[in-house]
Write a structure and sequence with these properties.
24% of the residues lie in helices and 29% in strands. The protein has 404 residues and is an alpha/beta fold. The strands form 6 sheets. Strands 1, 2, 3, 4, 5, 23, 24 and 25 form an 8-stranded mixed sheet that branches.
Length: 404
């Protein structure tokens, strides 16, 4: 763990504490070192503790973003430690306490270099969101559903290649691919054998292929609705696509880019109605322009990536015919699910905390304000404006002075 483990105690008082199933008004959270020591409806006697007065604001588990490419003017594919660290710091300002850095489709040599940089940056990441391992998004995708992924690097699963990459680094925790491609089922089985979560993405699969994929490990749908098939017609017959399949398979988890643009209000409401908060993971899928002014930007590596235009709260291809990436931050996701989709705050927070923790297999230590779990905590107001972000018991961002 890269964060300094401090012995002092921190007591958060006068907050509306968000637990997985209710809100505790005026309660207290006691942090000792990097762990939550106690959560109570009453005051907790802790002589010498540093006191943070939440002043009636919400006290929530830290936000967990399992799909993020960049922010603050940097991308994880920039091939620098600075990029990793600045992205982590940028998103911490918006309530993210844990993240899964995500690649784009690239050559093997670039993927290996990014994995090396992850390990170097992880050891120095003391003032930003904690890294939970890498997510490789591609390069095994359907060309017809490539979206903004660079077509030069898209290819079918290569057994020698993916075995080499997995053997090279132990930091890979999830890998997104199109399950209908030749070799994709064998690929998923190999991922499972190595403790890596398989996710379906950028895919033109039909229902029968998705069912087979789910049975063989593809239990998460990457950015639902984006770059995946819906109902199609072949020789007069209609076939259910990936979107319909994720709804029909009850235990399929789905990612949702809840920026209010990739999915408008009716689709956010539909996904919530069908899947529910225990199978929806809110993600930013943010590129380098997150937390930056609108204007020209680059998707992917700053030297070789795709030029895009950021306007209207989203990144677009230069011809403005397609989105090229999200510039959302986690606070925006929660705010939109509450205000646009009409989701209760407890369930919006669950989709940003407990559910992603479960999907990534870290629910024993993250995702809820429970005694013994990591002290990843955010304090925010009624508009979900972040006041304080705490990662493993250390305050890494504060908008206003809340300490006594």
């Amino acid at each position: 763990m890269p964060y300094q483990q401090m012995d002092q105690q921190i007591k958060i008082i006068n907050g509306r504490i968000i637990t997985p199933y209710r809100i505790v008004n005026g309660g207290t959270v006691l942090v000792s070192g990097n762990k939550i020591k106690a959560v109570s409806e009453c005051d907790i006697d802790a002589p010498g503790a540093t006191v943070i007065d939440a002043a009636g604001k919400y006290v929530s588990p830290g936000f967990i973003d399992i799909h993020v490419h960049g922010g603050g003017g940097h991308d994880f594919m920039d091939c620098s430690e600075e990029a990793f660290l600045e992205i982590a710091r940028t998103h911490a300002r918006y309530g993210t306490t844990s993240m899964v850095p995500t690649t784009l489709t690239a050559e093997k040599v670039d993927l290996l270099k990014t994995l090396d940089l992850y390990s170097l940056a992880d050891a120095k990441n003391t003032m930003g969101a904690q890294f939970l391992g890498m997510h490789l998004e591609g390069p095994y995708f359907a060309m017809s559903q490539r979206g903004a992924q660079d077509p030069r690097y898209i290819r079918n699963p290569d057994e020698d290649e993916y075995k080499e990459i997995i053997a090279y680094s132990k930091v890979i925790k999830r890998w997104s691919a199109a399950p209908e491609l030749p070799g994709a089922i064998k690929f998923a089985k190999y991922l499972q054998a190595n403790g890596i979560k398989a996710a379906l993405a950028h895919t033109d699969a039909i229902y029968e292929e998705v069912v087979e994929a789910f049975e063989n490990g593809y239990t998460l749908a990457t950015h639902l609705y984006s770059c995946m098939s819906g109902v199609s017609r072949r020789n007069a017959y209609r076939y259910a696509g990936v979107i319909e399949s994720t709804f029909l398979i009850d235990n399929m988890d789905v990612e949702v880019i809840a920026d209010g643009i990739h999915l408008p209000a009716p689709l956010l409401k539909l996904v919530y109605k069908i899947k529910g908060p225990d199978h929806i993971v809110l993600i930013t899928d943010a590129m380098r322009a997150a937390g930056m002014p609108e204007g020209e930007s680059v998707l992917g590596n700053k030297e070789t990536g795709l030029k895009v235009i950021v306007e209207d709260g989203v990144a677009k291809l230069p011809d403005r015919l397609s989105f090229a990436g999200s510039v959302a931050t986690c606070d925006r996701l929660v705010r939109n699910m509450i205000n646009i989709a009409g989701v209760p705050i407890i369930e919006a927070i669950r989709m940003m905390t407990k559910t992603p923790a479960t999907v990534m297999g870290v629910e024993n230590c993250k995702g809820a304000l429970v005694e013994g779990k990591d002290a990843d905590i955010v304090i925010f107001d009624d508009e979900i404006n972040i006041q304080t972000t705490m990662v493993n018991g250390k305050v890494v961002f504060e908008a206003n002075e809340l300490f006594n």
